[in-house]
Amino acid sequence: MTILKSAVDPADPEYAANRAALLEQLAAIDVEHAKAVAGGGEKYVERHHKRGKLLVRERVELLLDPGSPFLELSPLAAWGTDYTVGASVVCGIGVVEGVECLISGSDPTIRGGASNPYTLKKTLRAGEIALENRLPTIGLTESGGADLPTQKDIFIPGGQIFRDITRQSAAGIPSISLVFGNSTAGGAYIPGMSDFVVMIKERSKVFLAGPPLVKMATGEESDDESLGGAELHARHSGLADYFALDEQDAIRIGRQIVKRLNWRKQGPSPKPEFAEPVHDIEDLLGIVPTDLKVPFDPREVIARIVDGSDFDEFKPLYGSSLVTGWAQLHGYPIGILANARGILFSEEAQKAAQFIQLSNRADTPLLFLQNTTGYMVGAEYERRGMIKHGAQMINAVSNSRVPHLTVTMGASYGAGNYGMCGRAYGPRFLFTWPNAKSAVMGPAQLAGVLSIVARQAAEARGQAYDEAGDTQMRAYVEGQIEEQSLAPFLSGMLYDDAIIDPRDTRTVLGIALSAAHSAPVVGAGASGDGYGVFRL
């Protein structure tokens, strides 16, 4: 029998404490999400509505198939910065006319939809997701272009947005631009390089230079409409493929375009029938300890996210700090690697490398459930080959060709972040639980290392060590590292694709897996083809 059993006791006081702590963290994340949804605030939202315009999320809602989900990506981008939470743009995956699409829309209630450095980072990440997973893109454009005071951080790297649109088109991935307002200067190239363009009567404005700049450059007198209105581009320039009467009409046309794409997913279809997990998904709130130094059994998580709680564990008696095995999630086959006791030893690293190769041979996507403090250190472990075994695991992760999904459930420290497919290793999607933390090492460890180095330097100079200063330094460093390792900070930096409620993990992974199967799912060769040299 491969149905996982559970030892979770909801009546346990520790379970109750874990649940209460996680609910408190979720409430704090909800407050930050509300800031993103609020856009530029009540004043600017009201002004936008008075102009007869829909808000960006209202546009998204009308575009999506009724009742279908929308997986918003990077909703906390720019958290902890001087910019508005959400970075003035909404990005996510939704279903339009039965087709999974990457949807991106500027929020014109925030500085006219102008792009800041985090808008750029978020937009580029969305384009990366669309290209890797072969998702048609729909842009809802109404933006004043670059936020000029930040142009030094936007102008040069921002050209990648236009490059990505053309590369998507070359790869056979359609791009659709629905222009709801301004798309000027460099932004004019967004519709200019899209496969399909819809403009709205007396609303869309697309030109390389507005009337003031044209006047300064050429002396020519002009106005918005004659220079770049929808009528001009539909009748004369040919930039507009469709002429819409209002916003609702533009959205209707956009849906019609998707309907006529004759779009086909290239990955294998999921099994049409599958069982829900046997165990209650609500229990996920009580499983993770409030102290991340305390390990927990990841099988309890696996039992609540995979189909039928059915998990076929691989090498259960070897390298037991890492749980590996095969399951099915929303009908899709998947291989799972999950940290059990945090530390990765040589056995775990070798087991992971083998499992990743086997999953590639079977064209099976991989799910990494992170809760790791990193690879083991110490003289004995160095003698046993920890470096080369860790390198095997990282080699396998780096060169694996099947889709990777990563969820950070707890700790993600040191090179364990790399071996368990952190952001730098290009997972198709990476999601974080609100309790998660990630850094080069724990705050106390990092401050302690700095203290030891400083003490040794003082001794080498023959100086007395400042113990009071050391205490102050350690407290400062611990506080700084603790703040910078928290989930909202990391999400604000776009080191994940969203912070999610643990109870939504199964649903979110199902959407991500479905999106990944829009592209072919093919692993590295059966004989190790596609891998670098393994140092055995």
Describe the 3D structure.
This protein is α/β, with parallel strands linked by helices and 536 residues long. Helix content is 41%, strand content 17%. The protein has 20 helices and 17 strands. It has helices at 13-38, 42-50, 56-63, 117-133, 151-170, 189-193, 211-218, 224-228, 230-237, 247-259, 284-287, 299-302, 346-361, 379-383, 386-399, 416-419, 443-460, 467-484, 487-492, 505-516, and strands at residues 70-73, 89-96, 99-106, 137-143, 175-183, 196-200, 242-244, 312-314, 322-329, 332-339, 343-344, 366-372, 374-375, 404-413, 429-432, 437-439, 498-499. α4 (117-133) links the parallel β3 and β4 (137-143). The two termini are 35 Å apart.
Radius of gyration (Å): 25 Å
How many helical elements? 20
Structural class: alpha/beta
**Would you count the extended β strands for me?**
17
The overall pLDDT average reads: 92
Fraction of residues in helix: 40-55%
Question: What best-fitting shape do the alpha-carbon axes yield?
Answer: globular
Mind describing the biggest β-sheet?
8 strands, mixed
Spans of at least 5 consecutive residues whose pLDDT stays below 50 are none
Q: What oligomerization state is this entry in?
A: single chain
Cα distance, first to last residue?
Answer: 35 Å
Portion of residues in beta strands equals: 15-25%
